[in-house]
Structure formats: structure tokens, C-alpha cells
Amino acid sequence: MATLITGLDHFQVEAPAGCEEAARAFYGSFLGLPELRKPAAFEKNGGVWFGLPDGRQLHVGVAPDFVPREKGHPALRCDDIGAFGAHCDAHGVPYVSDAEADVLRVFLKDAFGNRLEVVEGSHPSVLL
């Protein structure tokens, strides 16, 4: 069978109405992601879009009945998990470290209580 999926374009995390400034503070200022212009058709929906260094996107979307995601989560990559932990410490952002998945990683919550993972490098992919 031919490969139908060629990659990941974006992922979306949910947030409550009025989330835009907190999203900009967390994803923009704290994580250092540049804000992207949303297509005009989506501006009325609220939320904020950000760019990742590899060209993919992170969308913060408004959910009417928002509930923070405590299990499902995006995993972002970094080159130095120690430096990322120090950045969290300097900004008072709590996190939990582990290496259970054979990679150094931390778990933290965004401004809305959604779970995020940050890994050093990447999770290994082993085909079955």
C-alpha cells in the first residue's frame, strides 16, 4: 500500500474563551514561538496560532466547554533538557522530569492546565 500520510502539519491544544493573551504569554514569550497570522475565515473563532522551528504549527483553539487535557498531550523537542528545566525554574513554571521512555523529558502544564511534554532529541521509532 502506498503511503497516504506524508507528515504532521499542526496540532491543536484547547483553551477557554478569552485565552489569547495567556496563550501569547506562555507559547510566545515563555516558549519563544512566533505568532502566526490566522486565515481571515478563522479569526472570528478566537485562539492563537504559533510556528514551530521545523515549519509545523501549534494552534491554541477556543473550546466552548473547555476542560484541560491531563493525559493526551503534544510532545515538543529541545536540544538540551537541562537548559529547558533551568528556563522553567527561572520563570516559576513547575515540571516533572523522567527518562522512562529512554529519552530525557519533562512534563509541564500550559497556561490553561493542559499537559505538555518536552523531550531532548526525539522518541525512537521502531517499526513492528
Describe the structure.
The chain has helices spanning 20-30, 40-43, 81-90, and strands at 10-15, 35-36, 48-51, 57-62, 75-78, 95-98, 105-109, 115-120. It is α/β, with parallel strands linked by helices and 128 residues long. It has a single domain, classed as 2,3-Dihydroxybiphenyl 1,2-Dioxygenase, domain 1. The strands form two sheets. A four-stranded mixed sheet has the order 1-4-3-2, with helices on one face. A four-stranded mixed sheet has the order 5-8-7-6, covered by helices on one side. The longest helix has 11 residues, at 20-30. 16% of the residues are buried. The model has no long low-confidence stretch (mean pLDDT 94).
Quick structural overview:
It contains 3 helices and 8 strands, in the order βαβαβββαβββ. It has helices at residues 20-30, 40-43, 81-90; strands at 10-15, 35-36, 48-51, 57-62, 75-78, 95-98, 105-109, 115-120.
Write the layout of secondary structure elements.
Elements: E1 10-15, H1 20-30, E2 35-36, H2 40-43, E3 48-51, E4 57-62, E5 75-78, H3 81-90, E6 95-98, E7 105-109, E8 115-120
Parallel strand pairs: 1-4, 5-8
Antiparallel strand pairs: 2-3, 3-4, 6-7, 7-8
| CATH class wording | Alpha Beta
Please count the helical segments: 3
Domains, number: 1
- The CATH topology corresponds to 2,3-Dihydroxybiphenyl 1,2-Dioxygenase, domain 1
User: How are the strands of the biggest sheet laid out side by side?
Assistant: 1-4-3-2
Order of helices and strands: EHEHEEEHEEE
**Uncertain residue ranges:** none
Q: What is the CA-based Rg, rounded?
A: 16 Å
What structural class do the secondary elements suggest? alpha/beta
Give the percentage of residues in beta strands. 25-35%
Shape call: globular
Largest sheet: 4 strands, mixed
Average pLDDT, to the nearest integer? 94
The span between the termini is 16 Å
CATH homologous superfamily (4th level) name: 2,3-Dihydroxybiphenyl 1,2-Dioxygenase, domain 1
Helicity level: 10-25%
InterPro entries: Glyas_Bleomycin-R_OHBP_Dase, VOC_core
Domain VOC: 7-121
GO molecular function: dioxygenase activity; lyase activity
Protein name: Catechol 2,3-dioxygenase-like lactoylglutathione lyase family enzyme
